[in-house]
């Protein structure tokens, strides 16, 4: 046998015959092969779903958090953690530079003030978030339960409240409520009437129980601010991955008495929790990779032991051990690819069904989303497949070394 000339074709021919063999000799390995393909497919399915759901949940919660505060907030440097901001001028010299930054999508003014929203029968502590007519209402329009977002140009007394607050106060759209604000002594508390025009539900109860939205002019009036004063700016970026770089750039151009903080800094407890998802995903990937590796070692050992006589015959005919190793490695890789194809078809299918139907529901109070979010990440999908192939290929090199220990004379007599 001229292995240099015919080695590749011989390896391919023998490997294919082993894969599709219907002989009696393959009866032991056949169920093991089916189990190995199923194990690889299951591992791929679990890894795909773990990454897609974990990253999807991270993105969904991150975007909801940013929707209430922006990716970066610019406020007075002496700003404390309360909802009573020290104002900054809206016409700062750095505003044109913010407009020119390629990382910035848009930015908008805001101010906050704590108060008590009340009816004749009930009351609830909330924070009035004041915005102007240029505010981007896209997020809240998507989260509307009923009604509409405030039209501040024609209805300055209109207010948007959460479904959580509406249920606590037993109110609905079209009704009037009073909001009371504590003023600095010796001034008496101020009461402002508002009409509820819309009710939203972001699914993020930590924020829903706090924020109601209306015209920033009310806060200016209550705090006796000039018309050009605001609580700060919310800056939204085109790409969240540019968060840290954009924050550094903004801090370099803004006034000495202001500071730019990222949403990760403002809500560190939320993002610390989200970062745990990466650890959980990594643990799942490692466990599934180990399962696939152990599975392939086992099945290859069984295939080699079952074909011991064939190995002896090939050696007796002059085939080197390296050529026989490649035959079994090629057979194992064939099984790996079959498992990957099945796993990808099923895994991607489940992901598509969940993404477009939302059939798997979650407890919104716990996970901040009503259904399991799915994010298709081509880089992770390719990485999972290539990583599985590489790991399985490396581990099957270990059991294939047993072929070098097989003696032709003993192997041919092997029963």
Q: How is this fold's topology laid out?
A:
Elements: H1 3-19, H2 29-69, E1 72-76, E2 88-89, H3 95-100, E3 104-118, E4 123-131, H4 138-142, E5 144-147, E6 158-162, H5 163-169, E7 176-181, E8 190-200, H6 205-208, E9 211-215, H7 216-223, E10 229-230, E11 232-237, H8 243-253, E12 258-262, H9 263-266, H10 268-306, H11 308-316, H12 321-357, H13 364-367, H14 378-400, H15 408-412
Parallel strand pairs: 4-9, 6-8
Antiparallel strand pairs: 1-11, 1-12, 2-10, 3-4, 3-7, 3-11, 5-8, 7-8
Helix pairs in contact: 1-12, 2-10, 2-12, 2-14, 10-12, 10-14, 12-14
| Low-pLDDT windows of residues | 1-6
Q: Measure the end-to-end span.
A: 26 Å
Largest sheet: 10 strands, mixed
- How much helix, percentage-wise, in residues? 40-55%
SSE order: HHEEHEEHEEHEEHEHEEHEHHHHHHH
Mean pLDDT, rounded to whole units? 85
What percentage of the residues does DSSP assign to strands (E)?
Answer: 15-25%
Radius of gyration over alpha carbons? 32 Å
Count of separate DSSP helical elements: 15
What structural category do the secondary elements indicate? Answer: alpha+beta
> Any idea how many domains?
2
* Number of distinct beta strands: 12
Q: What sort of overall outline do the alpha carbons produce when their principal axes are compared?
A: elongated
């Amino acid at each position: 046998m001229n292995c240099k000339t015919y080695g590749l074709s011989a390896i391919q021919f023998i490997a294919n015959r082993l894969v599709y063999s219907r002989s009696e000799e393959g009866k032991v390995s056949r169920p093991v092969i089916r189990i190995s393909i199923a194990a690889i497919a299951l591992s791929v399915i679990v890894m795909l779903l773990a990454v897609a759901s974990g990253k999807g949940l991270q993105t969904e919660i991150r975007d909801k958090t940013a929707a209430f505060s922006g990716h970066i907030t610019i406020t007075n440097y002496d700003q404390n953690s309360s909802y009573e901001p020290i104002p900054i001028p809206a016409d700062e010299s750095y505003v044109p530079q913010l407009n020119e930054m390629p990382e910035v999508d848009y930015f908008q003014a805001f101010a906050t003030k704590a108060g008590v929203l009340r009816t004749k029968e009930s009351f609830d502590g909330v924070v009035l978030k004041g915005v102007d007519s240029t505010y981007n209402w896209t997020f809240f329009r998507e989260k509307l339960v009923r009604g509409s977002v405030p039209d501040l140009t024609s209805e300055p007394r209109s207010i948007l409240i959460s479904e959580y607050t509406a249920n606590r106060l037993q109110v609905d759209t079209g009704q009037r409520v009073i909001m009371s604000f504590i003023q600095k002594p010796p001034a008496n508390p101020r009461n402002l009437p508002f009409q509820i025009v819309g009710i939203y539900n972001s699914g993020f109860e930590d924020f829903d129980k706090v924020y109601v939205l209306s015209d920033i002019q009310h806060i200016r009036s209550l705090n006796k601010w000039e018309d050009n004063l605001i609580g700060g700016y919310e800056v939204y970026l085109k790409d969240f991955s540019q968060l840290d770089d954009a924050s550094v750039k903004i801090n370099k151009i803004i006034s000495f008495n202001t500071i730019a903080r990222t949403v990760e800094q403002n809500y560190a407890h939320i993002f610390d929790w989200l970062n745990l998802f990466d650890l959980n995903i990594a643990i799942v990937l490692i466990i599934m990779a180990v399962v696939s590796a152990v599975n392939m070692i086992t099945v290859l050992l069984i295939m080699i032991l079952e074909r011991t006589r064939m190995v002896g015959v090939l050696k007796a005919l002059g085939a080197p051990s390296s050529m026989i190793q490649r035959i079994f490695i090629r057979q194992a890789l064939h099984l790996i690819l079959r498992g990957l194809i099945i796993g990808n078809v099923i895994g991607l299918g489940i992901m598509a069904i969940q993404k477009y139907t939302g059939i798997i529901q979650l407890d919104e109070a716990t996970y901040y989303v009503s259904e399991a979010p799915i994010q298709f990440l081509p880089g992770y999908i390719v990485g999972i497949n290539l990583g599985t192939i590489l790991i399985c290929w490396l581990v099957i090199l270990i059991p294939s070394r047993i072929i070098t220990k097989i003696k032709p004379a003993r192997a041919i007599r092997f029963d």
